[in-house]
Amino acid sequence: MRPRLPGSLRSRLFLILLAGLLCGQGLAFAIMLLERDQSARAVMLTTLQRDVAVAVALLDRLPAEERAGWLPLLDRPTYRYELGPGAAGTPDLPSRTRMIADEIRTALAPRFSVRFDALPGPTERLQGHVVLADGSGLTIDVRPAMRPVASWLPVALGVQLLVLAACVGLAVRLAVRPLTRFAEAADRLEPGRPATRFAEAEPDEVARAGRAFNALQARIARHLDERVRILAAISHDLQTPITRMRLRVETGAEGPDQDRLLADLDEVEALVREGIAYARSVHGDVEPTARLDLRAFIESLVFDYQDAGRDVTLTALADVTVATRPQALRRILTNLIDNALRYAGRAEIDVRAEEGRLAIAVLDRGPGIPADKLEAVLLPFVRLEESRSRDTGGTGLGLAIADQLAAALGGKLTLSNRPGGGLEAVVTLA
C-alpha cells in the first residue's frame, strides 16, 4: 500500500528533506566506519608483523627458564603468546584469518616456519605454532577484533542529527511562511473591504510575488470602484427622468392606468434609491467613527418601529459602549429588521457581547432561506423566487447593502436558518 503523506506542505517538505539528509548522513557514517575498519586493519597488520618478528626473536634468544616471565610483557589486546603446542584446531582458515596468517608468516620467514590452525568458537580465533631454535614450542594466539567505538561518538551523532533536524525545520519554515502569508492575505481579500498590502520583503521571489499580489488587489479595487461609480451615476441620473415621468402621469387623466403607472414609478424610484445606497455602502468609511451607547441606540431604534405599529422586540441587550459609525450601523439594522418584517411580520433583536466581540442578531420566524443560497443572497440584485419572490417586494439590495456596510465597519454579516424555521442574521463587530 502506498504510504500516505501528511496533508500540509510544511510537513511534507520537512519529512522529505529530513529523510534525504538522514540517508546521506547514514551513508557518510557507514563509509566512515568502513574506512576506519580498513585503516585499523592496515595499521594492525603492520604492527602485528613487526611486533611478532621482534617477540619471537626475543623469546628465541632468552633462556628457557626466563621465557615465561616475559610473556605477559609481550601480550597485546588482539594477540598473545603461549609456551607449548597450543590447542587443537583445523587447518582451514577463513579469509580474514588467512590474511593475518600470511602477515605473520612473512614476518618470521625464513628463520622460522609457522603452522596455523583455526580454533572453533563464537568469534574468530587463530593460532600460529612456531618451533624455536632449542626445539621448544611457541604458540601465537590471535583473536581479531574491532576496536570499540568511542563512548562519545553516539552522543556526537545524536547531537548532529538534532542540529540537522532543527536546520531542516528552520529552512522549511522560512520557505513555507510566505505561502502561509499569501493564503492569509487571499482570505482577507474581499471586494468592498479595505485591502491590506502584502509585505514586499526579501527574498527576491517573495518580494516579486508580493508586488504582483498587491497589484492584483489594486486592479480588483479599481474595477469594483469603477462598476460602483457607474451604478451610482446611472441611478442618480435616472432620478430626473423619473421625476418628469411622474409629473406627467400625475397631471394626466385619472384612472386605473394612472395608478398602475404610478406604482411602477414607485418601484423604479425604490430601485434607484437602493442602487445609490448600495454604491455608497461600498465606501462606508466616509462617515466618521463615534463612541456609541449601544443600549440607548438599539432601544431608540426599536421604539421607532413600535411607535409605527411594527412588531419589533428586544430579547437580550448587552450594556456596552462601542466605537463605530452610527448611521452605517443604523442602516444595517434597519435593512435586517425590514427584511424580517417583510417576510415574517415580526422581528426580534438579541445583542450579545462575547470574547471581546459584539454580536447583534435579528431573528424572525419566516420561511427562511435554502442552505445553498445563504451566501448568494448577500450579492446585489439576488432574490429568491420561491420563498422571497418579487411579489413580496424588495429590490434585492437590502442584504447586499447590510453586508457591505458591515464589512466597512470591520465586521461581518452571517445568515443562518433557525431550528424550527426562520432566519437569524448576525452582525459581528470587533
Automatic annotation (TrEMBL):
Q: Has UniProt tagged this entry with the keyword Cell membrane? A: yes
Tell me which Gene3D superfamilies the record gives: 1.10.287.130, Histidine kinase-like ATPase, C-terminal domain (3.30.565.10)
Q: CDD domains in the record, alphabetically?
A: HAMP, HATPase
Q: Which residues form a coiled coil?
A: none
Q: Which domain of life is it from?
A: Bacteria
Q: Which reaction does it catalyse?
A: ATP + protein L-histidine = ADP + protein N-phospho-L-histidine
Q: What is its EC number?
A: 2.7.13.3
Q: Cellular location of this protein?
A: Cell inner membrane
Q: Where is the Histidine kinase domain?
A: 233-430
Q: How does it sit in the membrane?
A: Multi-pass membrane protein
TM segments?
A: 152-172
Going by the UniProt record, its keywords in alphabetical order are: ATP-binding, Cell inner membrane, Cell membrane, Kinase, Membrane, Nucleotide-binding, Phosphoprotein, Transferase, Transmembrane, Transmembrane helix, Two-component regulatory system
HAMP domain location: 173-225
Q: Which GO terms describe its cellular component?
A: plasma membrane
Care to name a GO molecular-function term for this sequence?
Answer: phosphorelay sensor kinase activity
- One Pfam family here: HATPase_c
Output this protein's name.
Answer: histidine kinase
What is the native source organism of this protein?
Methylobacterium terricola
